[in-house]
Amino acid sequence: MGRKRLAGWLLLAVAAVLVQLLGAGLALYLAIPPSPALVRGDKLAALVVTDRNGVVLREVRSAEYGVSYWAGLDRISPWFLEAVLAAEDRRFYYHCGIDLPALARAVLANLRAGRVVSGGSTITQQLARSVYPARRRNILAKVVEMLQAIRLELHLSKREILEAYVNRVWFGNQVYGVDAAARLYFDRTPDRLSLAQSCFLAAVVRSPAEYDPYRRFRRARERQRWILAAMLEQGRIGGLEYEAALAESIVPAVPRNRFRAPHFVDMVLAAKSKAQGSRLKAGTVRTTLDWCVQQQCEDLVEAQLNRLVDYHVTNAAVVVLDRRTGDVVAMVGSRDYFSPDAGQVNACLSPRQPGSAVKPFVYALAFEQGLAPASIVSDLPGYFSELAGDYMPRNYDRAFHGPVSCRTALGSSYNVPAVRLAEQVGPARLLDVLRRCGITSLERDAGYYGLALALGTGDVSLLELTNAYRVLANCGEYSPVRTTFETGSETTSSRRRVFSPQAAFLVTDILCDNEARAPSFGSFSCLCLPFACAVKTGTSKDFRDNWTIGYTQDYVVGVWVGNFDGSPMHRVSGVSGAGPLFRDVMLTVQREEPAGFSEPAGIVRRPVCPKSGQIPGRFCSGTVIELFASGDEPCETCAVHRVLRVNPETGELASACQPGVERVFEVYPAEYWSWMADNGMPLPPASPEESRFQESELSDRPSVLFPDEDDVFKIDPDVSRDCQAVLLKGLVPPGTVEAAWILDGQELARVQAPFTLFWNLVPGRHRLQLAAGTKVSQEVSFLVLP
Q: What is the pTM of this model?
């Protein structure tokens, strides 16, 4: 008996100790404040990407697969707060986390029904349940929930508890909190909810599945009316407000897939992910994009592609940049992001060959080296030595234009002058400048690209090249593009000078000159806009890519059209493919007429002879006013227009002792004589010695000027055979109307002035002759390697 009594006392002591330990542990638990991040539900918060005006472009769901925004009580309609209190916890401000009368009522109701029909949970308990979700719902879980509610009440004010509750509560359809619910179901912010809408959302809180606004609207409506009646009974609203809310029509908004400007948003999120790590932080990212402009650009892309459907053009891309800040105002990466045919490829970021769109940078370099828009450059056939072999550029119109000014050569996009200038400035220097303009996709060395870099054979992206044109628009100064307004974004990046303001302005002036481009594009092309706009086109080989890029004082617009599979378009040039789309986009974004381009200091105007680019002489037939960088003005008088004394009998230059007649002639160097003869231009009279030289050049017998004897050509296996041709060039006697090219004894083709012919290379050794009437040139032998 003594031992049993001792054991009993020991058990009682152990129980007392356990009770004390349990009480101490419970007291310690209640004393520790809950984590603010846990109460705020940071894991529920979504990343929202908006345009510059707050229009939601995309909502990136949280780790809990929902969308949530945190809104303070001052940003929530008071009607919603009153409706939630009336429906969920009418004594919220009077209990300590547990409403005992409500709990007792729930127990009795459950006993009568024989099942759980009411939980009697307060708002604090519901908050505790969302903060500390239980795996199972039983009596023990209920007790723990009550303790958690008491803990929340001990450390948070009623206002903080209510704010956390309305921002964490589940509203179904993957949204948490009243802010996200108001935007989803009524397409408005929570502060603009009416009484009827507030009660409707409060109805959904009880059971998002049972009162789903889209699937069980009638049940949700009945629950809304019950809440309105409860608010009237509790004195939270008056009779007139009750009647008005009952009469108000409730129409849930149609669910919208906020997946706007997808290529642009993908680019922004990829940049944020790279900066922040694999998991994106919740919050709001305000981007530079203007959704209104974006929509208009998307519509214009669709319209232009519909017009080009018969030309095998299936896709297009558009970039619109703010000229001053570099803000990306619009970005259309493809015709349809959701197309299974590579629609998610962003053509604004994919490197492609830009063709002639690179030429302005060649001329800017040339102007920095002392040339001017009036400077004369040779547009004659010629081969240029490259690491890969001899290279012969040709113009888009398959003609050569002799001596042309830089203004005309750039405006009309002649290829040969651009290559000659690239040879003068050097491919390495051109490549360095393009990289300094932000074109990072040119990763090879200068030897790989060669002089053909001037014609856009290096792959670049539309976004890079459009921003490079901003360098010209900003008087030669580079700054990166900007995609967001976040602190520490691109706005803090340093600027750098690439060109002098004078060189950049001279290029801009040419690209604005409609007369300079008229020889190639006509006087009334789509590139002629009703305001000052510098614009340039580009087309890659085989018509695979077509570009148009230009700028005003406000915007820089870049356009690409083509096919993602690399297949060529059907004879689509800059003025028929990208050009019309560029014009439509520029007219759309440029709502007001922009100011003209600001002329920097150091620009001077001088009259020049258009034939020589030099100071007009007294025999020049006309003059033009041309722009120069200060210090680069011409200092020599025109040497093209000359007065010569001609022997009226022989047509040669008259000697001092011979009678003669003075006449004005255009005298060009000998390198242009063949071109002049091909184009029916009379040669100036010559001295007897010069005349004999001319006769040797222009004899009565036709001759083959190109190719030369024993020339060797190599076929490039990586280039289409259609693009590998040489220009057969010869001289014919004066008065010849038609000549025939003879290859390997067979007539190849009959030609008229200028008697040239592009011949596609065929492997083997060949014999070439030129026939004019009954006279045949000497035979020229050359070799084509496979």
A: 0.71
